[in-house]
Design goal:
174 residues
Length: 174
């Protein structure tokens, strides 16, 4: 994961991973026969970390949060807003690019995306699949802009809030 996050996906090889880990290439091959296996493992680690972040963030909301707050909290937990989450974001982005040329490697990613889109649609006032897809696309685009340095965390969250206002209406202040 460090190799992909620090040097990009093209640097991920059995040899480079072994060097980074301080072990022999044979040791790495014992666990991963191919680059595809290494990438799938890295994605599963990122997915697990993301699920933990989302679960922890949602747990902090208490019982029965508003749908808008629930979605904002979930998406904010998934965005690469700090250095720790940027590393996971870089790996996820590298894997996404990897699956663009290896569709067979994208099966689990497609399933995760479909489940997340269905959940988001179920929480939206309109229960609209297209609006859920748009919110996911916004999240992915914000993630890319955050990783590339075009947006700060504050700008990304402002953009997220503006989009949620379109879907839910602007929050009222009392």
């Amino acid at each position: 994961m460090r190799v992909a996050a620090d040097q990009g996906l093209e640097a991920v090889s059995l040899r480079h991973v072994a060097t980074e880990a301080g072990v022999s290439a044979g040791m790495v091959q014992h666990y991963f026969r191919t680059k595809d296996e290494m990438m799938a493992f890295a994605l599963s680690v990122v997915r697990e970390r993301s699920q933990v972040r989302v679960a922890d963030a949602v747990a902090g909301l208490g019982e029965n949060p508003s749908p808008r707050l629930l979605l904002r909290t979930m998406i904010a937990a998934l965005l690469p807003l700090d250095e720790h989450t940027r590393d996971d974001g870089r790996v996820a982005l590298a894997f996404l690019a990897y699956t663009a040329v290896r569709p067979s490697a994208a099966a689990s990613l497609r399933e995760d995306t479909a489940q997340l889109a269905a959940f988001i649609a179920s929480v939206l006032p309109s229960n609209d699949a297209a609006a859920a897809a748009g919110l996911l696309a916004l999240m992915e685009g914000l993630g890319v802009y955050l990783l590339g340095g075009q947006y700060t965390a504050e700008q990304a969250l402002d953009a997220l809030d503006a989009h949620l206002d379109l879907l839910f209406g602007a929050p009222t202040t009392s």
